[in-house]
Automatic annotation (TrEMBL), chain A:
Belongs to the bacterial solute-binding protein 1 family. Pfam families: SBP_bac_1 (PF01547). Residues 35-57 are annotated as: Disordered. GO terms for cellular component: cell envelope. SUPFAM superfamilies: Periplasmic binding protein-like II (SSF53850). This is Carbohydrate ABC transporter substrate-binding protein. It comes from the Bacteria. NCBIfam families: bind_CPR_0540. Keywords: Signal, Transport.
TrEMBL record, chain B:
Pfam families: BPD_transp_1 (PF00528). This is ABC transporter permease. The keyword Transport applies. It comes from the Bacteria.
């Protein structure tokens, strides 16, 4: 009895085993072939030269692969612009990949040396891929695009861009342009306009005004300031403009390029002192350090604190969040140290890039120029509700963006100067300098670190990078 | 003849697994080890051999040592408390006549089937400084001075992360211990109670020695589980903050590889972690070396 049962099960087992082996083999094979990307449009270069010239240019290779980040601005615009581009350039075919995690998706292609022809994403995207591509020299130099004429005028394309922006399109600071800017944002402190109006409070101009409000706020059971606790680098939109205002742009650039004493100079220490003072006065909303961005911003909307740093996307970002009655977004910018000081307000940009190994760089460059055509900028504002980094774009977008965002862009008309933050590129290092600068803020807010200790700590990290720069 | 057929069969059976293991475990493993000696961004096909430079950097990197200390803290606290609690529950649910045993087993096991990300979000609301249940409870019982931003204070953040980890894994180990305890023949307990041994005495002198082999295995599970599992909790709850207060080697490796484009260095941290886990496994093996009692 027992014997026969064993025999039977052995047979069954053997057959089963073979079935299993075959299945496993098959799966392995199929997953193997699935791993190799379907070479889409890699060899479209043999397209014949067509006579029908649009704008006097023809392109041998008529296939363009673009990869775009699908964030707050959506992908509607990209679909629309592709349609127009294909209509204006007969025979051209644009393949789009759009995704909120676009860099994760194209990373394998970048590593394999088979990148898309055109990429749109913020240079500060959180995978650090764009920065790494810059370091690798894997992005195409775009100087000819910007020095050359725009598609719809005879003037150089760079004349169309917002003033002062071109300097930031050269991440290595060597005159080589790798970034082509598109969307702009304005960042700074926000407050509840309705609350300030009903209480009759004045919007602070100087840091003294700001701290005076702290007492007023406490009497109301509110805190003065909060920020996106576990992501302390949101404070950059307060930190750097304040440094620029205290010591001028030179002071800021001294720090951003790791010069000796960059973080122990007066302008920087003064700003660090502001944060220390907030901590010492208990002006920061209780528990701020432990909150993520959504939690902190929701607390702000509910009236927990008077001010919070964020960008012009704030109103759209928090569209569905609960808020206190009558809440109205108001943009403050950043206070100055003494009345009459020059105020600065941070702006940031997102950008487009062409990889060095793009299969169709000529068409990609044409597509890039096309982005700055007047009617396309208009289309962009309409579809994406974003503000392009070209002159007059704010007015073009006025009807499509939230009133608070429009107001934020208007600070530049009211005397504040625009500025941007760009750390000097260094050779590869373990130091993540932006984290080194803002991570200690948690300890400062917990009163475990003084402004001086904070400055010394960042100075040390900065020194490491300075040494690397000197060695190379 | 028969022997050959059998060998062939065994080979055929093990080969697929071996191939999969080689392709998906050994190869990446070896590759990671090699890349630790290169300067590589993770993006280009050019990698520059730099010998031990990544390891030299690692040796001088304060954050690595801070992360290691945090790792060791979690490795000590989480296994000890989890083991204590799950053993206690297992003993209670097997030895005692408790009503609703099945219900308790399900309830204790429940956190284990939740996704770690869900648990982390859940607990970050438990610890929420203004409306979190923990601070609200402390206020309710008049311990207002104890309330704090649990995840934002470098002196409490590790405990605040350890607790959900313990909560999540108690059920799993409890089930393992229950299974082991139920394997102990009941006549031994009968004999023991005739001899007048108390329940505690029975546990100490009978149950524990008899399930020692299982406990040993779970200790290795603990070490690996805590080492690898802490990543998701920390990433969601604190993002390694405040100021590296909850940084562990895993999160640091991640940020070097994926936020800083410094893959070679990240791999060096990975190799360092590997050495530590292997070391810990060997140490735990040695420490727990003790003849298990057979029945």
């Amino acid at each position: 009895m027992r014997r026969s049962r064993v025999g039977l099960s052995k047979w069954g087992f053997r057959q089963l085993a073979w079935v299993l082996i075959c299945t496993v083999m098959l799966t392995a094979c199929s997953s193997g072939s699935g791993g190799t990307p379907a070479a889409s449009g890699g060899d479209a270069g043999s397209a014949p030269n067509e006579e029908s010239a649009s704008g006097g240019t023809t392109f041998e290779n008529k296939e363009l692969n673009i990869a775009v980040f699908e964030g707050g601005y959506g992908s509607e615009y990209w679909k629309a612009v592709i349609e127009r581009f294909e209509a204006d350039y007969p025979g051209v075919k644009v393949n789009m990949t759009s995704n909120p995690k676009i860099m994760d998706i194209i990373k394998p292609q970048l590593v394999a040396g088979n990148p898309p022809d055109f990429i749109y994403v913020s240079p500060d995207e959180n995978t650090g891929t764009i920065k790494a591509l810059v370091k690798e020299g894997a992005l195409m130099e775009l100087n000819d695009v910007f020095d050359g004429p725009a598609l719809d005028s005879d003037r150089p394309l760079k004349d169309k861009l917002t003033d002062g922006l071109m300097a930031y399109m050269q991440p290595n600071g060597d005159g080589n342009i790798y970034y082509a800017p598109n969307y702009m944002s304005v960042l700074g402190m926000w407050y509840n306009k309705h609350l300030f109006e009903t209480k009759g409070w004045e919007v602070p101009v100087t840091w003294e005004d700001f701290f005076a409000l702290g007492e007023v706020a406490k009497a109301e059971g509110r805190a003065l300031y909060t920020y996106q606790g576990i992501y302390p680098s949101y404070n950059e939109s307060v930190f750097w403009p304040a440094v620029a205002s205290a010591g001028g742009l030179e002071a800021m650039n001294k720090a951003l390029s790791y010069e000796e004493g960059g973080f122990t100079q007066d302008a920087v220490k003064q700003v660090m002192g502001v944060f220390e003072r907030m901590a010492q006065n208990d002006d920061v909303m209780k528990g701020t350090v432990a909150l993520n961005h959504t939690q902190a911003q929701t607390e702000f909307l509910k009236g927990g604190a008077l001010f919070i740093p964020n960008g012009s996307w704030f109103e759209s970002e928090m569209a569905d969040a609960p808020r206190e009655e009558g809440f109205e977004f108001g943009f403050l910018g950043v206070p100055v140290f003494s009345e009459g000081d020059q105020a600065y307000v941070l702006s940031s940009f997102e950008a487009m890039y062409i990889p060095n190994k793009a299969k169709n760089p000529e068409l990609a460059k044409e597509f890039l120029r096309y982005q700055y055509n007047d009617d396309i900028v208009q289309l962009n504002a309409e579809k994406s509700k974003g503000v392009m980094a070209v002159k007059g774009a704010v007015e073009l977008a006025k009807d499509y963006i939230p009133a608070s965002a429009y107001e934020a862009f208007k600070v530049y008309d009211e005397g504040a100067l625009p500025m941007m933050v760009q750390w000097k590129q260094t050779p590869k290092s373990e130091v993540i300098i932006n984290d080194e600068l803002f991570n200690p803020l948690g300890d400062v807010m917990n009163k475990k670190m003084t402004a001086d200790q904070w400055a010394d700590k960042v100075e040390q990290a900065s020194a490491k990078l300075r040494n690397l720069l000197n060695q190379s | 003849m028969k022997h050959r057929e059998r060998n062939l069969f065994i080979t055929a059976c093990t080969l697929p697994a071996l191939i999969l293991f080689a392709v998906f475990a050994l190869y990446p493993f070896g590759k990671a080890f090699v890349m630790a000696f290169y300067d590589w961004s993770g993006l280009s096909e050019h990698a520059r051999y730099i010998g031990l430079n990544n390891f030299k950097t690692l040796w001088q990197d304060d954050i690595v040592w801070k992360a290691l200390v945090n790792n060791l803290f979690l490795l000590l606290v989480v296994p000890v408390l989890t083991m204590g609690a799950s053993m206690l529950f297992a003993a209670l649910l097997t030895q005692r006549k408790i009503k609703g045993k099945k219900l308790y087993r399900t309830v204790f096991f429940f956190p284990n089937v939740l996704s770690i990300v869900v648990i982390s979000v859940l607990w970050s609301f438990v610890y929420h400084p203004t409306f979190g249940i923990l601070n609200s409870f402390l206020e309710l019982i008049g311990l207002e001075s104890w309330t704090r931003a649990w995840l934002g204070d470098s002196s409490t953040v590790l405990w605040a992360i350890a607790f959900p980890m313990i909560w999540q894994s108690i059920g799993y180990y409890m089930i393992i211990y229950i299974a082991a305890i139920e394997g102990v023949p009941t006549d031994m307990y009968e004999a023991a109670s005739i001899d007048g041994a108390s329940a505690f005495r029975q546990f100490r002198s009978l149950t524990f020695p008899l399930i020692w082999n299982v406990v040993r295995v779970t200790i290795v599970f603990f070490l690996i589980g805590v080492f690898n599992g802490s990543f998701a909790f920390i990433k969601v709850m604190t993002n390694a903050g405040p100021n590296h207060g909850s940084e562990v080697l895993m999160t640091y490796m991640y940020s070097q590889a994926f936020n800083n484009g410094n893959f070679g260095y990240a791999m060096a941290i990975g190799v360092f972690m590997l050495l530590i886990t292997v070391g810990l496994a060997l140490i735990s093996e040695k420490l727990t070396e003790r003849d298990s009692v057979e029945y």
